[in-house]
Amino acid sequence: MNKTISVIGLGYIGLPAAAMFADKGVQVIGVDVNQHAVNIINQGKIHIVEPGLGEMVQKAVANGLLKAVTKPETADAFLIAVPTPFKGDHQPDLSYIEAVSKALAPVLKKGDTVILESTSPVGTTEQMVEWLAAARPDLKFPYENRDEEVDIYVAYCPERVLPGQVIRELVENDRIIGGITDECSNKAIEVYSIFVKGDLVKTNARTAEMSKLTENAFRDVNIAFANELSLIADRLNINVWELIALANRHPRVNILQPGCGVGGHCIAVDPWFIVDKSPDLANIVRTAREVNDNKPNWVIEQVKQAVEKVANFANKKTNEVNIVCYGLAFKPDIDDLRESPALAIAEKLMDLYPNQVKAVEPNYNSEANHSEKEIALLDYQDSLSKVDVAVLLVNHKEFVENKPHFGSNVVVVDTKGIW
Ligand code: SAJ
Predict the structure, then answer these.
(1) What is the pLDDT of residues 361-416, one digit of tens each?
(2) Residues 188 and 230 in one domain
(3) Range of the domain at 262
(4) 3-state percent breakdown (helix, strand, coil) of the chain, nearest 5
């Protein structure tokens, strides 16, 4: 019985999961090394932005079902949702999982279930078992292909929720349940059955790890195709948006949308974990990453040409041209600036054109703003009379629903094809 569930890592994935268990009446202990986040959660508030989450956390804390602490405590099941960034030349950084394993091991007891949710290179769950087993030689841990009685059940169950839709997708999405053994999968299924309505599909830990990476690499490769098409179409004087819409009328073609680059902490990162394990084989995956990472540079070149153009026809100096970037978040209708290509483009433009660059970001929230540089923000309507080069970077609904009507004196660089 999972009377108490502990969620370790109270970020964009862990906190919604914690709130979801509490919503079903389970006693939840949230663990995070960030004292600031722990304090905020214990006040019934949240330190991230996700629609619907604030109300759930507030209720869970008020009902005494969710508390946050900085060090692991005894529980029946543990869900680990800590970051797995990459370091140096795109090698995965497992230090957070290692630190959690070492902090968690002392509180484990016979019969507990440990589930890793963090996006991880293949083999990480087995590595985690080694870290746990080294710290707790008194407990028997599971090993793949050894179906024997164990004390601790371990599984890899990747999260696959879309930021902005987390509360709905946590419940509705199918989940992949990668137990180290079949018995481990069964124990993990008991945990997710508490709130998941989607199918809980069993596999082994390695396949589950790879499936998460595969899903995000699939999307990255397909966006790279769209981004590459946008460069080719531009050279050939073809409207890429029309081109894609036409091609997508074929019953078996479904091309994604080009943009200013691929951002976020998932799609721009996870494919590298595949490349890292099989560098000689992962050619398409690597090239897709490079194509998407290079798109912001192409956008900057477009802006440079636009600045020259305006300067020429308005008879201005290039340092008199006003540039406004529309959208800074990593995708539409969210406030998340992490790994945002739009923000990177705006910052690069600020270096190239000091004091000439401003931005409009309707979802701006100073707490979530991870910008190194202070970008002057303008109100959307006010910006329209001040801009010479309008750089549309993110298709936020405000920009889609209220299209501007620029005069011929404004040059538009539209990376999303909406203006
Ligand atoms: N993007 C495009 N063109 C498109 C679609 C997206 O340029 O047609 C860009 C976005 O603007 C953004 C980036 O790609 O910069 C990523 O956005 P996204 O909406 O594709 O994905 P994320 O990063 O918000 O969430 C992804 C999801 N994975 C898949 O759709 C396969 C989500 O389900 C995962 O849970 C999440 O990664 C994760 O945590 O791994």
Answers:
(1) 998 765 544 555 689 999 999 999 999 999 999 999 999 999 999 999 999 999 99
(2) no
(3) 219-414
(4) 40, 15, 45
> 298, 314 in Cβ contact below 8 A?
no
User: How far is ligand 1, taken at its centre, from the CA of residue 24, in Å?
Assistant: 29
* In-domain check, residue 148: yes
What is the token pair recorded at 60?
């869970």
What is residue 371's predicted lDDT score, i.e. its pLDDT? Answer: 56
Active site (catalytic) residues = 212, 266
201 and 246, same domain (yes or no) = no
The number of distinct structural domains making up the chain is 2
Q: What is the pLDDT of residues 140-177, one digit of tens each?
A: 999 987 878 999 999 999 999 988 899 999 999 999 99
Domain with 35 in it: what CATH number? Answer: 3.40.50.720
List CB contacts of 102: < 8 A, sequence separation 6 or more.
131, 135
The pTM is what?
A: 0.93
Backbone dihedral angles phi then psi of residue 178, each to the nearest 5 degrees: -105, 80
Q: Rounded CA gap, 320 and 19, in Å?
A: 51
Contacts of 401 (CB under 8 A, 6+ apart): none
Residue whose CA lies nearest to ligand 1 atom number 38? 266
Within this chain, do residues 110 and 157 fall inside the same structural domain, yes or no? yes
Query: Which atom from ligand 1 is nearest to the alpha carbon of 332?
Result: 11
What's phi and psi for 287, nearest 5 deg?
A: -60, -40
The CB of 331 under 6 Å from ligand 1? The reply is yes
Q: Phi first, then psi: give them for residue 233, nearest 5 degrees.
A: -60, -40
Q: Letter for the amino acid at 152?
A: I
- Claim to verify: residue 199 and residue 276 sit in the same structural domain: no
Query: Taking residues 100-126, what's their average pLDDT?
Result: 97
Give the closest residue (by CA) to ligand 1 atom 32: 162
| Ligand 1 pocket, residue 161 CB under 6 Å | yes
Give me the phi and psi of 308, to 5 degrees please: -60, -45
Distance CA 419, CA 417 (A): 6
How many whole angstroms separate alpha carbon 281 and alpha carbon 299? 30
Find the 263 Cα to ligand 1 centroid distance in Å. Answer: 8
- Distance of alpha carbon 319 from alpha carbon 307, whole angstroms: 9
Q: Identify the burial level of 64 via C-beta atoms within 10 angstroms of its C-beta, where 0-12 means exposed, 13-18 middle and 19 or more buried.
A: exposed
